[in-house]
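MODEL INPUT / OUTPUT PAIR
PAIR INDEX: 1
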Amino acid sequence: MPVPFDQAAHELQVSPAKLRRLLAEGAPQARRGRRGRGGAALLDVPAIQAWRGLAHDPGALPRILASELLEILAGAIATAFVETEGSHKQACAGVLAGAWYLCAQAVRDHLAKLDKSIPEITVVPLQMSHLREIYRSSGRVGPSRSPLDTKHA
């Protein structure tokens, strides 16, 4: 389960400065931080531990991938939405958010076959929540419940 920066530093038993250095060196983040309210980075402590021990344990790679791929997929899908033009753009938002969820779940399930400790998807990236809201504001009627409804970054 992803945790805030300060909690991650405490769980990793490192100083905040050391954790910042690790992140600058490429340690995985469940959600990259940004400025503004609700923009705090979320860190996957077991993934960072696996990343730190990767030189000694090549089997840790699935855990690292699970931590980073969901954000990477969300960024690519959000870019596809931004580059979409035409009157159908709002309608595409819901389809793209759903596509993210299906891709993310498929990646998670595949990685879980390699490493049973891969967690379920518990955090939906903010970009996907925004796409879902754009779709809802279009006035089109979609499913009353979806996996994206209950999980927000």
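PAIR INDEX: 2
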Amino acid sequence: MHQVKKPRTMSFKSLAQAIESFEPFGDVCFSDLGKLDVAADALRGVRALDHFVSTKGRLPNAWDWAEAQEIVATCRSLAGDEAVNERMVRLMALTAQGSLCPIAAFLGGVLGQEVIKALSGKFTPLHQWVHNDRSPFRPCRRRHRHRCSSQPNSFLCPDDGR
């Protein structure tokens, strides 16, 4: 038996349209189906970080609690009546300048898979959003702050031999 896939025409929104019309359970591909509510919270946090970058011209300083609170307040104002996961947004702000290898590996794998799909034309590409919960990779205790370098994109600990 031979199966022939019929061509399918897909349309995508621009990034600005997709952010404005984000539906948490609509066009999102989840890597962890146990955390379906996290995608909307993460997008709100990213929008607040983006607002910070557009006004200040930089990411918030690593482990700067005042700037993190500013981003949480921005997130609350952007969310309107919707609830905000302040802990998640605060951790995003505190660690925004960090470079985390597991996230880079995940994104590289997704990008490589999408390139192969585009070149081969055999498989359907991801539609609009892919969400991967990064919270297990972030430090969750304030005590880690003194161990991190203050240099951007560097969360190297002084005792790691570098």
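PAIR 2 NOTE: The domain at 15-147 is CATH 3.40.50.12550 (Rossmann fold).
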